[in-house]
Amino acid sequence: MAEKRKLIQYANGPSLEEINGTVDVPKDKGFFKTLLAYSGPGALVAVGYMDPGNWSTSITGGQNFQYLLMSVILLSSLIAMLLQYMAAKLGIVSKMDLAQAIRARTSRSLGIVLWILTEFAIMATDIAEVIGGAIALYLLFNIPLVIAVFITVGDVLVLLLLTKIGFRKIEAIVVCLILVILFVFVYQVALSDPNWGAAFAGLVPTGKTFATHPTIGGQSPLQGALGIIGATVMPHNLYLHSAISQTRKVDHADEKSVAQNVRFSAWDSNIQLTAAFFVNALLLIMGVAVFKSGAVKDPSFFGLYQALSDTSTLSNGVLIAVAKSGILSTLFAVALLASGQNSTITGTLSGQVIMEGFVHMKMPLWLRRLVTRLLSVIPVLICVMLTSGKSSIDEHVALNDLMNNSQVFLAFALPFSMLPLLLMTDSATEMGKKFKNAIWIKGFGWFSVLALTGLNLYGLPDQIKAFYGDGITAAQSTQADIIAWVLIVAVVALLVWTLVDMHKGNERLKTELASEHVSSTYEHLAKLSREAGSEAEFDKEAVAER
Questions:
Q1: 291: which strand partners?
Q2: What is the pLDDT of residues 482-521, one digit of tens each?
Q3: What residue ranges are annotated as transmembrane (predicted)?
Q4: Is 438 helix (H, G, I), strand (E, B) or coil?
Q5: Is 209 helix (H, G, I), strand (E, B) or coil?
Q6: CB-based contacts of 266: which residues, under 8 Å, 6+ apart?
Q7: Could you give phi then psi for residue 195, rounded to 5 degrees?
Q8: Correct CATH for 11-384 of 3.90.25.10, 3.40.50.300, 1.10.4160.10, 1.10.3720.10
C-alpha cells in the first residue's frame, strides 16, 4: 500500500513542480542572448504541429489540389501562434496552467469530465505516434509490425533517461530532432524544383479553397482543408505551453520581469511555429512537386515510402537519380521516427499537466507514459492482427484509416481548451490591465476560436462516415449523420455547462477579490484551486480504490 502511495500522489502545487522556475534567465542583456535563454518551450509546442498526424493530410492535399491549400496551412499556423501566445501568457501571469485555471473556476464533476475528454484527445494523438514510430522501425530495420508496435512502448525508457538530464537538455534534443525533420524535407523539395510562384500564390485564400467541388481522390477542397486544420491545432498543446512557459524564473513582484517573460516566450513560440509552418508547407509541396500528379495512390506512410523509391512516381530526372540510391525513402523514414520520438516527450508532459490540473493526481512521468502508451497500443495491435491475413495494401489502408479516424476526438476536446483560454486572457480581473488581451488579439481570438469550433463540428459527419469505410451505404450514411448530430448536441451542451461554470467562477473571483482585498489575483486563484480538491478527499478516494 505504501509503495502504491508513492506512485500515485495528491498534487495541487505549481504546474510541473519539478521543473517549474528552474531555468535562469539574464536581466538587462542583449536581445539575442536573452532570446536564447527563453528558447526551448516553443520547440516542445511546435512538435505537436508537425507530428505524424499532419503528414498524410498535407501531402494528399498537394496531390489532389496542387498549391490550393497552402493558404489553409498558413492560416492554421497564424491561429496556432495566437492561441499559443495566449496560453503562455496565462501561465506566466497567473502562475497556473490552463487545466489548473479552468479547475479553479469550475465544479469537481465538470473537471473530471474535461479531464477524461482531454485524455482521449491525447490518446488519439498517441495512436498516430505509435503508428508512425512502428512503421518507421519496420521500414528502416524490417522489424515485423507487431514487434515494432511493442518496441514503441520502450520509448518510456528514453523518457526516463531524459528526466534525469535536466529540462534544458530536453529542449535542446527536441530542437535537434526538429532540425532533422526540416532538413529532410528541404532536401527533397529542393531536388524537386517546384513552381515557387504557384506555391506563393497559393498562400492567398480564394473561394475555391473551401469549396465542396471538385472531388478528387474521394476528397473535396473543403474536406482537405478540414483535415489540415484538424491535424494542426491540438488541445494538448495549449495545456502544455501554459505549463512549460513557467520553467523560466520570473519575479512576479516586478511587472517588468513578467513583461519580459511574456515577450520572449512569444518570440520563442512564434519562431518555432514558423519552423512548423515550413515543415507542413514543404509536405504539401512534396505532394505537388516531388511526385507526379495523382501518382500516390496510397497516402499511408507505407505508400509514401514506396513512392519515394519508385522512379515511375517521381517528377524529374534529379529525383529519379537520387531515388535509385534509396536515400529519399530512407530519409523519409528517419524523419518519421524523429517526429514520433519528439511527440513522446510532449505528449507525456501534456498528460501530466491535465491530470494534475483537473483531478489533482500525480504519477511519475515514466509511469504516465507507460500507461497511456499501452492503452494507445491496443487499437493499433487489434488493427494489425485483424489485417494480418489480408494483403499488405489492406493492412496499410487499415492503419492509415485508424490514424485518421482517431483524430475525431480532437474535434470534441479543442473547444474546451480554446474558449476558457480566450475568456481568461480577455479578462482584466484575471490578467491585470497590462496583460489582458489587446482589442485586436481579442477580435482575432474570437474569430479563430469560433471558426475552428465551427469547422470541426461541421466536418464531424464526414469523420463519422469514415469509420464505415469506402463502401458506405445510404442507411449507414443516415446512421452516421444521426450519430454526428447527437455528438454535436452533446458538445454544445457541455460547452454551455463549461461557460456557465466559468462565468460563475469569475463572478465569485471578482466579489471575493473586492471584499477580501487580497494582495494578488494569483493568491486567490491558488486558494480556489486548493478548495476545488483537498488532499484528504484524495486520500479517501485512493483508499477506497485500493
A1: 314
A2: 998 998 999 899 999 999 988 888 887 777 766 655 545 5
A3: 30-50, 65-88, 109-128, 134-160, 172-190, 271-291, 370-388, 408-425, 437-458, 482-500
A4: coil
A5: coil
A6: 85, 88, 89
A7: -85, 90
A8: 1.10.4160.10
